[in-house]
Amino acid sequence: MTGSNPASGTRIQITGVGLALPGATSAAELLRQTPAPAEPFDTAQVIGKRGHRYKDRATQLALCAAIDGLRDAGLIPADSEELAVPGTSMGVVASSNLGNLDTVCGAAEQINRESVGAISPMGLPNASSNVVASHVAIRFKLRGPNLMLCNGPTSGLDAVHWAANLIAADRVRRALVIGVETRNEIVEGLLRTEAAELLDGAVALVVESAEAAAERGAAPVAELGRYRRQAGLDGCLEPLLADPDQQRPAPGIWFTPERYAPDGTAPVPASVPRHDLSRAFGRSSGALGVLQCAAATGWLAAQGSGRALLTNGDDSADAVASLLLDRPGADS
Amino acid sequence: MSQLITGAGAVVSVGDGVEDVFRALCAGTSGLAPLRGFDRERYGAQNAYEIDDRPAEGDVPHRATDWLLRAVAQAAAQAGLGEDLSGIPILIGTGLRELRSAELAHRAGDALDADRLHFGTALRERFGADRTYTFSGACSASLYALAMGSDMLAAGTEQTVIVAGVDTLTESMYGLLDRVHLDPPERVQPFDRSRRGVLMGDGAAAVVLRRETPEAAPGALGRLRAVSMNCDAHHVTAPDPSGIAEAVREAHRRAGVKPGDIDLVMLHGTGTLLNDEAEATAIGEVYGPDVAVPLMTAIKSMTGHTSGSSGLVSLITALQAMATGQVPPTVGLSDPVQEAAEFRFAREPISGADIGVAQVDAFGFGGVNAVAIVEKVSR
C-alpha cells in the first residue's frame, strides 16, 4: 500500500518512552489539558555540567530524553549508561527543524560583524544539522544507521516511520527515535513567534521489532499500525482510515496537527475526541509526532480498548503524515 | 533483488547535466574560484567551488532548492517519469538543507519561510510530489538516502524511488571549517602530502532507482548491488578508520563481491588531514594485497566538497565511467600520503578503462559512513 509501513510483516513496537520537557514526567502526564509551566527543563540534573560542553540546547535536551527512554526500555540500568544490547543492533533517528538555527545564524552574524577569528571552533559540529543524532550515538555507542529528519511539520511521525523501515529492512533490531525543538532569540525572530508559543523540550522512543523485544523480555507499550504521507488531510486520512469491511471501530482518540482548528470537514468521525498537544506544550514542529506517540502510549495504558490516530501537518503544509498506534499484540 | 538506476541528474560548479559534468571532470576542469557570495575579508580561506548563478551583487535564498529541482527533473526525464511525481517517494540527503536561506533572513531581519527549510514544499509545487523526505545526514547524506530508497524497493512496496542530494555553502559552515584550518587551503588536494584542508562546493544530484525487470534493463545506467550504512559512534568531527573499514566490508558483503572484484573506487577524499588518512587506512586494511587492483580517484579535487550531494555525484560519475571507459583524474595529486602509497590513482584523465564494478565512498561528521557498490548492467 502506498506510504504504509513495509509489507514485510515485521511487527514494530514501542518499548520505552523518555521525556525532557516542562510539565510532564510520564506518558500519562502528557495528556494534561492545562499549559505546561514556563520554567525550562533543567538538563544539568540529568547530564551534569560535563554533558553540556560545547553542545547546543537541542542536543542537551535530546541526551536527557534519550537517557530517560533507554532506562524506561530497560536498555540501560538505573545507575549507569551501559547499554544492555550490542551497539550495532541499535540505530538513531532524530527529528528537529529548528534545533541548530541558533548556532548557524549566530556564527554567520558574528563572522559578518567581526571575522572568522571571532567564532569558537567548538561550534563546528553544531553547524551540521545531524548534530543531535550523532551526539546521541556517541554517548551510548549506538553504531547502527544514524538518521536525522528535518522534514517540516511531518518530521516527527516520519522519523518513527523510518525507524520502523530500518528495523523491517533488518538494518537494525531497534532504534532510538528522538524529537526535539528549542527556542531562543534567533528562532523567535525568524519565526516571528513568542517564546511562550514554542516547545523547549525533547521526547525519545525506543522502537523495536516485536521479536527483539520479546527476546529480551521487554514489555511493549504500543504497536505501530499503518502510516501514510500524502498531500492534504483528506488525501492522507481517508485511505488510512478506510475500512470497507467495517472490521475496526473508529480510533478512540485523534492527536491532531498543531493548532488544528476543528471545522467539521476532517475525515475523522466527529465522535472521535480530538487532542492537540501543542495547546499544553507549545508549537512542537519536528518534535510533535514523537510527542504524540509518547502521549498515545499514556492514553493506550489508561484505556481498555481502542487505538490512537496521530496526524502531523495540515492542508497548508507540503503534505500530511498520519500513523495509527495500537496496543501491543492487537490485530491492526 | 536487483535494482536499476534508470535516470540521473547533476548540477555542480563545473557543469549542469550529467554529460556536461562528466565531460568537464574528465578534462580535469576545476570549479575552483575566489569566494563569490561572502565577504572575503572576513575569512582566511579565499576560495570555493561554487555554482556561479548569483545576481551581480549579493546573495539570494533558495539556490540549493533550485539545483535540487533541476537535478530531479533531469533524472526523472531520463527515466521517462515525466513531471508528475505524486506518489513516488523522493528521498533527499543534505548536510545543510536551506540553512543558507536562514542565515540570509536572520541577517536582513526578515521572517524565515520555515516551510522552505526542507525541500518538500518546492518538490510538491514543481512535481506534485508528496512523499518527500529531507534527511540531514552530513556528508554521507545522499548515500544514506540511497540505502533507504534501496530498502524500500527491497521491501516490495515500491516499484520506483527517486534519491537525491544537495548542498550549498553556508557562511557558518564555511567559516567554522576555516576556523579549524591551521593554514587556509587554496584548493582541495585529496591524499596529497601537501593538502591543507577542505573547501566547500555547491552541488545537487539525483537518481531514479527501480526494481529490475527485463524491459527496464537495456536502457538502464547501471545496477545498484548494495549500500551499507553505519555510525562510528566515536567523535563528532573526527573519523574512525575502523568504522569506515566496517562500512566498506559490509557493502562488499551485501553485494557479494571481494576487493579483487572492484574495478574503480570513487574515494570520499575531502583533502582534510584526518579524513584522507582515515579513509586510506581503512581501504588499505580492507583491500590488503588487492589494494592496487582498482583504479581510484577523488573528484572533490575538481568539485570541492559538495557535502550531502557528494556521494551521489561520485556514484553518477562511476556510472558514466562504466559507460564510457573514461575515468576523471584526482587533480593536484603528486605526492600521495604514506597510507595511500600503493593506491592506483588516476592522476591524469584515463580512457579505455574496463569498469564493471565500482565502489563509492561517503563519510560525514558524526562518523556517519555509507558505501555503495554499483555495476554495469551488461554483466
UniProtKB/TrEMBL annotation, chain A:
Domain Beta-ketoacyl synthase-like N-terminal per the UniProt entry, residue ranges: 47-183
UniProt keyword list: Transferase
Top-level taxon of the source organism: Bacteria
InterPro entries: Beta-ketoacyl_synthase, Ketoacyl_synth_N, Thiolase-like
Gene Ontology MF term list: 3-oxoacyl-[acyl-carrier-protein] synthase activity
Example GO BP: fatty acid biosynthetic process
Name used for this protein in its record: Beta-ketoacyl synthase
Automatic annotation (TrEMBL), chain B:
GO molecular function: 3-oxoacyl-[acyl-carrier-protein] synthase activity
SUPFAM superfamilies: Thiolase-like
Keywords, in A-Z order: Transferase
Domain Ketosynthase family 3 (KS3) residue range list: 1-376
Name recorded for this polypeptide: 3-oxoacyl-ACP synthase
Taxonomy, superkingdom: Bacteria
Family according to the record: Belongs to the thiolase-like superfamily. Beta-ketoacyl-ACP synthases family.
UniProt-listed Pfam families: ketoacyl-synt, Ketoacyl-synt_C
GO biological process, any: fatty acid biosynthetic process
Signal peptide coordinates: none
